[in-house]
Amino acid sequence: MTAAAMRAWSVVEQGPVEGEPLKEIERPVPEPGPDELLVRVRACGVCRTDLHVAEGDLPVHRAGVTPGHEVVGEVAGTGAQVFGFALGDRVGVAWLRRTDGVCAYCARGDENLCPRSRYTGWDADGGYAEYTTVPAPFAYRLPEALDDVPAAPLLCAGIIGFRALRRSGLPRGGRLGLYGFGGSAHLCAQVALAEGATVHVITRDEVSRRLALELGAASARDLAEPPPEPLDAAILFAPAGELVPVALRALDRGGVLALAGIHLTDVPPLHYETDLFYEKEVRSVTANTRADGREFLALAARYGVRATTHRYPLDRAPEALRDLKAGRFDGAAVLVPG
Ligand SMILES: [Zn+2]
Ligand SMILES: [Zn+2]
Fold first, then answer.
1. I need a surface site. Which of 2, 163, 181, 187 has the fewest CB within 10 A?
2. At what angle do helices 317-326 and 48-55 cross, to 10 degrees?
3. Residue 35 near residue 3, CB atoms below 8 Å
4. Which GO terms describe its molecular function (predicted)?
5. Are residue 16 and residue 151 in the same domain, yes or no?
6. How far is ligand 1, taken at its centre, from the CA of residue 108, in Å?
7. Is 280 helix (H, G, I), strand (E, B) or coil?
8. Half-sphere exposure of 288 toward its Cβ, with a 13 Å CA cutoff?
9. Which pLDDT does position 197 carry in this prediction?
10. pLDDT of residue 3
11. Do residue 120 and residue 230 come from a single domain?
């Protein structure tokens, strides 16, 4: 069908992004499978998980994979079994790509825990390219109110931050601590604030502390200082296991710490009396369900959640990853082809 070629980034050999784990290649525009959409990429957010895929914190699932799972694009082709999508429709492509739909977890609505789940930009080629594909049942319709570039980070950073917020069990009007304040946290904070929470941000990055205060956080402090009041819930966004006991100690009795990352360095030993007693809880967050995604995208439009974005042309993808790793920007980076 399509013999045309496209530009795409490929993880040729996992390693530090200061080297060259990614190479820009030409490959044929992909053929959508029978239940898939071919998507022309208009914008693709740069997620920390892409860094883990490039550097080897996550094992290789597909040799030479094209990363990228925060894709806003338009339908450029459809497989034979697809209905309900037309050429030119705007869609979002996210991390969760497929589940088996039949296991015990899928059956009870926890498809994020499906043992046979597949992920965009890890098991299949993602959006660091001019075109990508997505199974139609896993494509998101995007609210009109959201423009292409600011919508891109919502598709992983936003959805995961939202699931982490719900997993944290934050009560209405509660006190929330956010440890780390990058792409995911700054979107999560906007939802929490819109729902009446008091938000305290703890990050060593000064630019991000400023962004936190601009968005309405009650405080933004460096790691050395605890938040100004006990927390009902906290979310750890930084991939730093050493912050687990730090965040647990900041919780009030009965508080919950949610761990939002897909990768975390080792957690040091916990002290039962100060870190866990009084019914404090630690909960991990694993991907998201499509229901989380749809609920978050609707709320993002309603609450006016806005991603702070920094555009990079597609051919500067490695630079965007290096800048992410070094903490050189606040908010999120977005790759724009052409
Ligand atoms: Zn399943
Ligand atoms: Zn992601």
1. 2
2. 100
3. no
4. alcohol dehydrogenase (NAD+) activity; zinc ion binding
5. yes
6. 9
7. coil
8. 27
9. 98
10. 65
11. no
CA of 222 to the centre of ligand 2 (A): 25
Domain that residue 275 falls in? 159-284
Residues near ion ligand 2 (Cβ under 5 Å): 47, 49, 156
- CA–centroid distance, 301 to ligand 2, in Å, is 20
Q: Is the pLDDT of residue 290 over 70?
A: yes
Would you state the pLDDT for residue 330?
86
Same domain, 318 and 208: no
| pLDDT for the residue 131 | 98
CA of 105 to the centre of ligand 2 (A): 22
Q: Among all ligands shown, which has an atom nearest to the Cα of 96?
A: 2
- Report how far ligand 2's centroid is from the alpha carbon of 154 (Å): 10
Q: Which ligand is nearest to the CA of 102?
A: 1
Do 253 and 223 fall into the same domain?
yes
C-alpha of residue 105 to centroid of ligand 1, in Å: 6
Which amino acid type is present at position 233?
A
Spatial separation of the C-alpha atoms in residues 180 and 222, rounded to whole Å: 10
Position 1 pLDDT exceeds 60: no
At 51 the pLDDT is 95
Q: What is the pLDDT of residue 263?
A: 86
Identify the nearest ligand to the CA of 108 by its number.
1
Ligand nearest to the CA of 118: 1
Average confidence (pLDDT) over 101-106: 98
Residue 220 three-state SS: strand
Last residue of a domain, one of 284, 299, 317: 284
Residue 59 Cα to ligand 1 middle (Å): 21
Residues 134 and 165 in one domain: no
Average pLDDT value for residue range 299-315: 96
Residues 28, 132 share a domain? yes
Q: What CATH number is attached to the domain comprising 245?
A: 3.40.50.720
**Is the model's pLDDT at 207 over the cut of 80?**
yes
What is the mean predicted confidence (pLDDT) over 69-83?
Answer: 98
Other CB atoms within a 10 A radius of the CB of residue 218 amount to 17
Which ligand neighbours the alpha carbon of 100 most closely?
1
Which ligand is nearest the CA of 58, by number?
2
Answer whether residue 303 is part of any domain.
no
pLDDT tens digit sequence for 47-61: 999 999 999 999 999
Residue 231 tokens, joined: 């927390």
Q: What is the pLDDT of residue 101?
A: 97
Q: How far is the CA of 211 from the centre of ligand 2 (A)?
A: 21
**170 and 135 both lie in a single domain:** no
